[in-house]
Amino acid sequence: MTLPSSGLSGIRPATTTDTAAVRAVTDAAYHHYIERIGLRPAPMDRDHAADVAAGRVFVTGDPVIGLVVLVPHADHLYLESIAVHPDAHGRGVGRALLAFVESRALELGLPEVRLLTNAMMWENQKMYARYGYEVVERTVEGPYDRIHYRKGVGAGA
Q: Which of 3, 5, 41, 143 is the most buried (most CB within 10 A)?
């Protein structure tokens, strides 16, 4: 697996031929959380084909080693999911993907990025804080204990 040589330029919209890789990278990235939280993380059960078809998925690597699922709203860009294959950890893939998310929000004229993570995913909480995301609230939705984050982007951030 190779990391794109130029950060954001190596991130592209997923195509239907990427759907299996999107599923595989998502499953690999989230699988280790199943035992910790006691159920499959929600990103593992998304309709990856529908997300790709709707233009919500952006990937990096050849073969794919990382991805984001983005949903634009009127007042923010929602980061539905970010996944980096465990074999690519420590190579800056997550950092490049988060930078891409912020640049995408700016491109769309949206003032902030929002996301959530499971309260049992401690690593993610540390990462989001390190990249300037602030906790907005904590909610329990069915079996999911979730921490919601936001980050302003652009001149008003």
A: 41
Look-up: residue for tokens 């190579």? 91
The rounded distance, in Å, linking the Cα atoms of 29 and 151 is 23
Confidence (pTM): 0.91
In the predicted model, is pLDDT for residue 23 greater than 70? Answer: yes
74-97 pLDDT, tens digit per residue, is 999 999 999 999 999 999 999 999
CB 84 within 8 A of CB 98: no
Q: Between vectors from CA 84 to CA 150 and to CA 103, what angle results, nearest 5°?
A: 45
* Mean pLDDT (the chain, rounded): 92
Neighbouring residues of 142: CB distance < 8 A, sequence distance ≥ 6:
none
**DSSP string covering 119-137, please?**
TT-HHHHHHHHHTT-EEEE
Structural contact between residues 61 and 88, judged by C-beta atoms closer than 8 angstroms: yes
- In whole angstroms, give the CA distance from residue 39 to residue 10: 33
Helix (H, G, I), strand (E, B) or coil at 104: helix
63 preceded by cis ω (within 30°)? yes
